[in-house]
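Lay summary. Proteins are chains of building blocks that fold into shapes, and those shapes determine what they do. In this project we predict the shape from the chain. Here is one chain we studied, written as its sequence of building blocks.
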Amino acid sequence: MSTRAIASKLASAGIVEHPYALAVYLYATGRGGNLKAGDYKFASPITPLQAIDRIKRGEIALERFTIPEGYNRFDIAEELSRTGRGAGDHFLRLMNDTGLIAHWAPSARNLEGYLFPDTYQYSGKTTAEELIKMMVRRFDDVFTSEWATRASSLGMTVQQIVTLASIIEKEAASPEDRPLISSVLYNRLKKGMPLAADPTFIYAALLEKDYDGNPNQPRHRRRDSLYNTYKYPGLPPGPIASPGRASLEAALYPAQTDYFYYVLSIGGKHKFSRTAAEHEAAVAEYRRLRDSGALSNGGR
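And here is the predicted shape, written in a compact code that computers can read:
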């Protein structure tokens, strides 16, 4: 836009009363040069020259969106659709571009797990593709080469670590439980035991568009899916959500325990057990607490 057009635009927004006079002034003083395109928001009150100075500095208006830890790509696509850059289905298609993470996970099916949970800023010119890329770049920032080396020392690929971390993220409501849950999952993997993590069969149901919000629905637990860790031992084929930094650290640095079981308890914390008998007693206590309503404010 020309300086005169900008002055006219500011007038239509109620910032300038005499746009022609402003345009003449800017032309005469040379202050109208190098005005930067973009979307701008101005606090009121503001003088015309203050507005011009902000446009010259390129202080464009930025919006924000936040992705919480534990969101899966369906949740993220829905959140991103609120930016006005496309519908949820459009974002899901963009999330199938695994070229963005080929250096981490060459066999990945999509970007699940690599859309790092954080708060992001975007402008009116930011594209849907750029929104996705900034989330993957944030993962690149967080997952360091030292972490990749640590994963290798554990005999794990980055994809396996992110997958494990995503399960930890969905299971742990209490921060101190994360490395303990991680230890349970590692111990079960070493023994060849199924991980038996509820969030995995929930994710399998989401993939089939069949999840009704009830984790106690028998058909979900029985679902024949490689993501269902009740039916299939080992890790699922890929992450089931976006893990945060703490869950990634827990997957890389598990506590050293002889626990093989855990169940939700009061305050969102978990009760950890070494034997099946101990676990059965803990489950009975969980059911008693659940039925009494003591678990209503904790856990997930």
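What the prediction tells us: The chain has four domains: 3-57, 63-142, 156-256, 260-300.
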